[in-house]
Amino acid sequence: MKQQALVAEQFGNTAVAYLTSAVHAGGADLEAVKAVVQRYKTPAVLDLGCGAGHISFSAAPFSASVTAYDLSEQMLAVVAESAKQRNLENIHVRQGPAEKLPFPDASFDMVVTRFSAHHWEDVPAALKEIHRVLHPDGVAIVIDIIAPENPLHDTTLQAVELLRDASHVRDYRVSEWAAMFDAAGLSHQQIDAWQLKMVFEEWVARMRTPTDRVIAIRSLLDTAPEETRRYFSVENDHSFFIDAAFFEARKAGH
Question: What stretches pass through the bilayer (predicted)?
């Protein structure tokens, strides 16, 4: 199965779980996105890799229009139904990949992606598409899990992520994000960084991780080097902490 089909299938099967997930449904980063939206007068917003639509729901009250865009048709169905229940009539759903956006140049005042980019097959290509569809005075916001710069810790993170979710590609380091933003012609700054607690049983249940892979993740965390276990603050029940970051980016020169 190709990567994009794998992502669509994996998240189609878990759409409702992501709508109610505490990690995704709340957080100071959602409030920060609202604040950026309100810098503009009724902007056109693209929620790229929208998942269950939490960015869309946060931005819609302050926006002229919000396009919720995702690979998974089941996720988009959840977004459409939830938007209807919330009386958010300016949210429109559209299906497709991040690397090939079906929108004209300079279509959006804001492009926001939250906890999605680690599933993209080609992040540099997606960032170039963000640059293309962004208005010259617009802003892109990228929120995602961040890999440690230390290769030992990085390898452990990618391993447990892939065991949990076969559609995982990579959590990128801050240094990698900087290089990819630059290559796409986007000037950027890191606005915030924080830690997220992954409550183990909830984390694997949300993705419906098979039992054999859950056992493998536990074993990997149990046998990881002491400094890696300490970095991720691994707890007795295998819950652990990961880093997240909030970037703002604009077209270089604007």
Answer: none
CA distances 142 to 26, 126, 152, 188, 199, Å, are 16, 12, 25, 10, 24
| pLDDT tens column, 180-221 | 999 999 999 999 999 999 999 999 998 899 999 999 999 999
Q: Is 101 left (phi over 0), alpha (psi -120 to 50) or beta?
A: beta
Predicted confidence (pLDDT) per residue in 11-69, tens digit: 555 555 555 555 555 578 889 999 999 999 889 999 999 998 999 999 999 999 999 99
| Domain limits, the chain | 3-147+167-197+242-251
How many other β-carbons are positioned within 10 Å of the β-carbon of residue 89? 10
Residue of 67, 151, 162, 168 whose CA lies nearest to 112: 67
**CATH superfamily label, 3-147+167-197+242-251:** Vaccinia Virus protein VP39 (3.40.50.150)
Residue 198 CB: number of other CB atoms within 10 A? 20
- Phi, psi at 155, each rounded to 5°: -60, -40
CA 57 vs. chain centroid, Å, equals 15
